[in-house]
Design brief:
Elements (H helix, E strand, L loop, with lengths): L4 E6 L3 H16 L3 E3 L7 E6 L4 H17 L4 E6 H5 L1 H5 L4 E5 L7 H6 L8 E3 L20 E5 L1 E2 L10 H5 L3 E2 L2 H13 L4 E5 L14 H9 L6 E4 L9 H9 L6 E7 L3 H7 L5 H14 L4 E8 L6 H14 L3 E6 L17 H24 L5 E11 L2 E6 L4 E5 L8 E9 L5 E5 L2
Parallel strand pairs: 1-2, 1-3, 3-4, 4-5, 5-6, 7-10, 10-11, 12-13, 13-14, 17-19
Antiparallel strand pairs: 8-9, 15-16, 15-18, 16-17, 18-19
Helix pairs in contact: 7-8, 9-11
């Protein structure tokens, strides 16, 4: 009997990626064959995002595309869009089952128990009911694993809907996460990306500390690299920075959301730091890790953001010279305080500011990568091959390419960084 095929389509953050991978393993253990996202499938699973209106639209379009391509397939939708708008999702043609973030861990069971198809089955819950922790990590998808250590957020920033979609901050005990890291190591993967909604807020439900989690993971044999996916500026303590600088396993790679360089706008956003506190954190990192990759999130066009506010943001970014910028235009999300704020910024103005910061990002990222040319570095190569070249990343997150060498895949190799291209990739020579 031919095995049933299941495809997975993950939108949004690395946390979703880790959860999708875990759900996929449950299907494979149940006798299903996992196929690619463009392949025909009997079941299509969508793990959705809802951080912006664009993310909602992307999910709706994906559902319609999958239904056209696989008219007889069961389509299951979970994730943040399914949590926030379950009945809207259920009305889209082709959808058979919608599961809240609370029910995400039961997706395999719910889908396989699905009876006669007709009106979509909806498993919905309110934010207050989001109390379960779906333990997850990715495996088999690439050379590194995304390990979920925390879920939910208590911060309730004025523009953000994630609290409503993910609930309050919660986590598993350190001992359980160490066990999962050992499982990742046993699978042969060399790198773990530590992920969460508000990663640095780890410990709310267990009384533990994020720094203690880092210390425990550092002792796991077989894992050679760790990265912290994202951490709030007010939560990246001197202790964490000093630990990462001292540990050979923790890479010099930080993703820290700024959102605005204007203290007035930061206050309206309900962020928990000032621009100078943010700058102080960057200075602390660079004092111990001058080669560190620093990625920064920025939002343009927040209500009442003036030219002067934007100029403060641009000037701060010029001064800090991060390695990369993730720039987003402000997007109104239902039920957030920002929706009702006056002095909306025209979309055309917000778009122009995005373009200006993206141009700045291109320059800053090129400069950061170019400084590495002529040096040596350690690179973990992945299995992807394009045009006879394989790709990997240095510890400080510079993408490197070299002629494909099967023996180098999933190995940390010493390389000489030779030349940078227009795409900012650096061609490397593997040192034998």
């Amino acid at each position: 009997m031919e095995k049933r095929r299941v495809s997975f389509h993950t939108l949004g953050c690395k946390l979703n990626f880790s959860e999708s991978s875990t759900i996929a393993r449950s299907f494979e253990e149940g006798g299903f064959v996992r196929v690619g996202s463009d392949d025909e499938a009997d079941i299509c699973v969508i793990n959705s995002c809802s951080v912006t209106e664009h993310a909602d639209k992307k999910c709706r379009n994906l559902i319609r595309k999958l239904h056209r391509r696989n008219p007889d397939a069961v389509i299951a939708v979970t994730g943040c869009y399914a949590q926030l708008k379950p009945y809207d999702v259920a009305t889209i043609e082709g959808v058979d089952i919608v599961l809240s973030n609370n029910d995400k861990g039961d997706l395999y069971k719910r889908v396989t128990e699905l009876g006669a198809r007709g009106r979509a089955q909806v498993y919905a819950c309110d934010t207050e009911e989001l109390t379960r922790f779906f333990a997850s990590f990715s495996s088999g998808d690439r050379t590194r694993s995304f390990l979920k250590v925390q879920d939910g957020c208590d911060y309730k920033c004025a523009y953000c809907t994630i609290h409503y979609a993910r609930g309050s901050s919660r986590n598993m005990p350190i001992a359980d996460l160490v066990a999962e890291a050992r499982e990742v190591a046993a699978s042969g993967l060399k790198e773990i990306v530590i992920t969460g909604i508000n990663t640095g807020d780890f410990g709310r439900t267990t009384g533990e500390k994020f720094i203690d989690l880092l210390r425990a993971l550092n002792e796991v044999e077989g894992i050679e690299r760790y990265r912290i996916s994202s951490i709030e500026p007010n939560l990246i303590t001197d202790e964490i920075i000093e630990f990462c600088a001292a540990s050979p396993k923790f890479q010099h790679h930080f993703h820290i959301p700024l959102q605005s360089g204007s203290d007035r706008i930061l206050g309206l956003m309900r962020r928990r730091y000032t621009s100078e506190r943010f700058a102080d954190r960057i200075a602390k990192i660079r004092s111990l890790m001058p080669d560190a990759f620093i990625g920064i999130d920025v939002i343009t066009g927040f209500p009442s953001e003036s030219e002067a506010d934007f100029e403060q943001t641009r000037t701060l970014l010029e001064r800090l010279a991060p390695s990369y910028l993730h720039v987003f235009p402000f997007s109104e999300r239902p039920n957030t305080p920002a929706v009702d704020m006056p002095d909306k910024v025209p979309a055309s103005v917000s778009t122009a500011r995005v373009a200006e910061l993206e141009a700045l990002c291109d320059r800053l990222h090129y400069d950061f990568c170019a400084r590495a040319v002529g040096t040596t570095a350690d690179v973990l190569f992945e299995s992807t091959v394009r045009g006879g070249m394989m790709y990997g990343y240095t510890g400080n997150y510079i993408r490197v390419k070299a002629p494909y060498d099967r023996e180098a895949v999933n190995r940390i190799c010493a390389v000489r960084l030779a030349a940078i291209g227009d795409d900012h990739d650096i061609t490397a020579e593997i040192l034998k």
